[in-house]
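Late entry, evening session. Most of the bench is empty. Finally got around to the prediction I had been postponing all week. Sequence below, unchanged from the version circulated by S.P.
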Amino acid sequence: MSTQLRHLALAAAALLLSAGAAAQTGDPGQPKLVPNSQRYRVSGARPATGRSGSAVLTARILMNKDHSVDVEATTGVLDSTATPPGNIAKVQYKPLNMSGQALGATNWNGLNGGGYFHQNLNGLSHNQQAQLQANITGLNGNRTDVVTVVESARLRPDLAVSGIQPASGLANVPVNISAAVQELNGDTGASANCVLYINDAEADRASAVWVDAGGTVSCMFTHTFTSPGTYTLKVAAENSIPADYDLSNNSASATINIKSADNINYYAEAGDSQYTYTSQTSDTEYQNGQMVYLNNNQYSESGWMQYSYISFNQTGPLAFPLSATVTEAADASPATASANFANITADSTYSYQCHPTAVCAQSQAVRSDANYRLFISVWSVNDTVNGNSAGFSGQLDREAGDVTYISNQAYCQWWSTADAPCPGNTSYYTSNQTDTWGTVRLGFGTQDIIQFSMTDAGGNVYSASPIIPLSNAPQSFQQPYTCSNWGTADSGNYGSSCSGSNYTSTGTWGSVTWPQ
């Protein structure tokens, strides 16, 4: 090899190496992304093509499930939305036997449909050949170009979807969902839209995916489920080009169980009841044998009560100020309850020598709105020997009645400060801003779902998303109607007092613990 040719070869090799390096950008471990327009492989049958002068004819014969065939010819590109040039003025169709001899001829004359021709025919078997001859005008002045091609009857592509994964995931965490798409007939590849449906609503799609003849590809979707529960997934291969052989297998369905991405320990409980209370009292008094007093009283009351709460604890840092959100929804009505607590600062903080080598610190905060009351206690231990540790606990609940009275212990735990230290007293109450149990009554059916999340000053996020199963919880308390007598008839002064009551309650109740 001459010196000049050797230099040229080295320069070409350097260009190839640099092109390969440019194609693989970023982390070499990352998968390389290739546009959908670049097909990964085309191994199936290709349409037949022929030329006469500047006229080009492309033809294919695709067999349908009913054994009919679609004969297509174009002066442009099959399956393209662009208008093909010229006009196919005449087509002659000849099925051929195994020796290549014509079994007959069919002619279509005087065509003026432009550069595309299509006929649905019978009488052709799989892989049997046919000759197409087309007269093409409008490309070279007054000249008519005659182009002849021979094409075989191929099965249409049959796309089938299967293997939807995974079966479970976590709420508020992106979940990768995948499915396999196969071409089953092995003759012809196809492009289609790979579409993900969640509970029958489109959630994601990969457009114009190509599946080679006899090949298998995967479609990967990503979806973030905002709440725990069981969801229905469907993946469909839609708008197949060429049209699909059998539409019955173009989609597959599965279910996915989304669990809470909880990272705090909790116990959650909820209940709802409709109650009725009735009572009856009667008092009589006699003096000298004459009735001097009679009082009969009947009382009835009915109403409803509903509550929910989460008690939680966890080791780990939690730094004030905090923000917290809660949303609660049951399954028997669209009503929801929610709260948003922003910029929660510590109401009180104190520290003490809890060990010869350690100093303990604790901070508390209480916040409430029309629906919920939130209690938070944060603790830390700075130990010069055993190391430092931290954690927190608290409770979120919907309160009962018009107001809530504060006990001595509750006051000392949550409300005492340097200006108002323990011991406390019961001369305090807080308003619940409602005369029922909870400000809204959710439609409790079979479950109550609470989504609770806290974010601290350091960006740490702690969440609990209990799904509380609910079951019937009837209650009944009865005091039989009984009387007690006093005095004697001989003395002339006597009487009786009678009373009885009945309480019935129908409703639902449930609880759940995490970790389970």
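Two things to note before I forget:
Residues 3-23 form the longest helix (21 residues).
The radius of gyration is 40 Å.
Will write this up properly tomorrow.
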